[in-house]
Specification:
single chain, 4-stranded antiparallel sheet, about 350 residues, alpha/beta, Aspartate Aminotransferase, domain 2, Aspartate Aminotransferase, domain 1
């Protein structure tokens, strides 16, 4: 089976994990976690990187430490994975949905302002499938209305917006290291920021907020959201290999696009962005064709996966308000196998599946 996405591991990950085991480094306070955080901050050009146990935890902890509480509203795209809206709900706040751009799938920045109310406290853009959002207009809106910006960069490690890394363009940026991400620790996440006070709060709130001077003394509500040293050891190796992993994803996207652009619809890369092509997606004529192609590919031992089902369609967030672009993308979109270690032969197999199925439907 050609899987839709698998981790790409090497001897370097084994080396760093073995080093941790040989030194009995397992906990979140052992050297590998700090080494990973320092290397991540340096790579992305920020003052602080705070490792946590998942991308969802990163989003929640960033929102919480930035003061988002019950009754507050947070602007989020409806076309995203449920972790984005879920982190808002976890704070007791209300996710307010905005439709997507048809050409990138990212939040439609022209529709944000109309959703702002006196209760709006933050905006959370998501760099969908590794393509950066248009951040300049979001910054203008945030400045005009006094909003904080938390970037959901779960899928966009190494993506660039106007020369700056995605995830470093707001008050905080949140990355996921789940197994299907461009770089992985199996589970895990990272929050980056240039705010010293925020970084201090993040480090305390991820570990039960133990007091600096009086142990087992807790002044505020906090959690156990820590990353283990074994995960950090994997992450450190993946970070050192990040450029090669990104280039492989971009090469996948070029290969697919060159050979499929005349048969299917494609998302596009904007001039202001350098996407990392976390997943390569195609748009089929309708949902029936999309689902039929996915089933056909499965018979050929090729795994594919539908685009995100928009939040406004989810049972826990379902709305009467129409979101036509997100609904269209969610109904017609399919992403193809996109692992960084895909061979040319495997990509050719995927392409033949798509072409064969579409030719049969003509």
């Amino acid at each position: 089976m050609i899987r839709v996405c698998e981790p790409s591991l090497s001897d370097l990950e084994k080396k760093y994990v073995n080093e941790a085991l040989e030194n009995n480094w397992l906990s979140s306070i052992a050297p590998p976690v700090q080494l990973f955080e320092e290397a991540f901050a340096k790579k992305f050009g920020v003052r602080h990187a705070v490792a946590v146990n998942s991308g969802g935890s990163a989003l929640f902890l960033a929102l919480w430490t930035l003061g988002i509480r019950a009754g507050d509203e947070v602007i989020v795209p409806t076309f995203t994975m449920v972790a984005t809206a879920g982190a808002v709900t976890q704070c007791g706040a209300i996710p307010v949905f905005v439709d997507a751009e048809p050409d990138t799938g990212n939040i439609d920045v022209t529709r944000i302002e109309e959703k702002i109310t006196p209760r709006t406290k933050a905006v959370m853009p998501v760099h969908i499938y590794g393509h950066p959002c248009d951040m300049d207009p979001i910054h203008e809106i945030a400045r005009d209305y006094g909003l904080v910006i938390i970037e959901d960069a779960a899928e966009s490690h190494g993506a660039v917006y106007k020369g700056k890394p995605a995830g470093t363009l707001g008050d905080a940026g949140c990355f996921s290291f789940y197994a299907n991400k461009i770089m992985t620790t199996g589970e895990g996440g990272m929050i980056v920021t240039n705010d010293d006070k925020l970084a201090y709060a993040l480090r305390h709130c991820r570990a039960y907020d133990f007091d600096d001077t009086k142990h087992f003394w807790h002044k505020r509500l906090a959690w156990n959201l820590r990353m283990s040293s074994l995960e950090a050891a994997v992450g450190r190796a993946q970070l050192e290999r990040l450029d090669e992993l990104i280039e492989a994803r971009r090469a996948n996207a070029r290969y697919y696009a060159d050979r499929l652009r005349n048969q299917v619809g494609l998302l596009t890369e904007k001039p202001y962005a350098r996407s990392v092509s976390w997943m390569f997606g195609i748009l089929l004529p309708d949902e029936k064709t999309r689902d039929g192609l996915m089933r056909f590919m499965e018979t050929r031992e090729v795994e594919a996966r539908t685009f995100f089902l928009p939040m406004n369609r989810q049972p826990i967030y379902k709305t009467a308000e129409p979101f036509p672009v997100a609904d269209d993308l969610g109904g017609r979109g399919l992403y193809l196998p996109s692992s960084s270690h895909l061979t040319e032969e495997e990509k050719d197999t995927v392409i033949r599946c798509v072409r064969e199925y579409l030719e049969k439907r003509r």
